[in-house]
Amino acid sequence: MRVVVTAGPTREFIDPVRFLSNPSTGRMGFAVAAEAARCGHDVVLIAGPVALPTPKGVSRVDVVSAREMCDAVLSVVGLPDNPTVVVSAAAVADWRPATCARKKLKKRHMDGVLNLVRNPDILKRLAGVERRAGGNLRLVGFAAETGDAVCEAVRKCREKRLSFIVANDVTEPGAGFGVETNKVAFVYPDGQVEQLPLMSKRSVARRIVRQLQHLYP
Ligand code: PMT
């Protein structure tokens, strides 16, 4: 199976020295890529700006912004001939500044208001490709929530036409951004939920890859 994994944050620049971003370190996505490669899959990892080494046996494409990540994913996926799964673990910025100044903005020229525009939703774009790919493209998302993770995850799973979504409540101790562990639930479009205990991100990745292999033998 071909496995395309996105990982890390995106950066949305305001000027050459300032950007909007989030605390993703890429650990979760890199663990999925490493585990998929260990299981013998053909893995492409599309990484936002992170400080992690490339896992063994993985091809890596580095990007900075959400639009770059979207272009990279679409060009890698194309209309797949072989069964391809995209695992979207990246924390993609939903918004970017409407303009990016070419030179550092002077404080005296800033009025405290930042105009934002929507970034593309990469998984929704892929859902369009998936419709044309005759079942050869499958999508798995992550949902970073700060409350009722499962309820929001079911909505996202259906809206983005995902095979399943990995929900994590990023306010729980030991889960979400930055840490070595995660506590996730696999949530399916029909509302089924499989809650996993707190475990290392590598173990979560192992469970995800095992589930992919189970769903798409
Ligand atoms: O990188 P770490 O420090 O290890 O942290 C791991 C993590 C918390 C980043 C990871 O476990 C996680 O939850 N990743 C998804 C974060 C997120 O952006 O969730 P979301 O609920 O906002 O987005 C839902 C899904 O849509 C995600 O699969 C996301 O990649 C995707 N998305 C979001 C926005 C966008 N414009 N395009 C997308 O494809």
Number of domains: 1
Sheet bearing the most strands, described? 8 strands, mixed
Give the assembly state of these chains.
Answer: single chain
CATH architecture group name: 3-Layer(aba) Sandwich
Structure commentary:
The protein is of the alpha/beta class. It has helices at residues 27-38, 66-77, 122-132, 149-159, 201-215, and strands at 2-7, 12-15, 18-20, 42-47, 58-62, 84-88, 95-97, 116-118, 137-145, 164-169, 181-182, 184-187, 193-195, 199-200. A hairpin with a 2-residue loop joins strand 2 and strand 3 (18-20). The structure holds ligand PMT. Ligand PMT is lined by residues 8, 24-28, 66, 88-92, 94, 119, 121-123, 141-144, 156, 168, 170, 176-178.
Secondary-structure map with pairings?
Layout: E1 2-7, E2 12-15, E3 18-20, H1 27-38, E4 42-47, E5 58-62, H2 66-77, E6 84-88, E7 95-97, E8 116-118, H3 122-132, E9 137-145, H4 149-159, E10 164-169, E11 181-182, E12 184-187, E13 193-195, E14 199-200, H5 201-215
Parallel strand pairs: 1-4, 1-6, 4-5, 6-9, 9-10
Antiparallel strand pairs: 2-3, 7-8, 10-12, 11-14, 12-13
The structure holds ligand PMT.
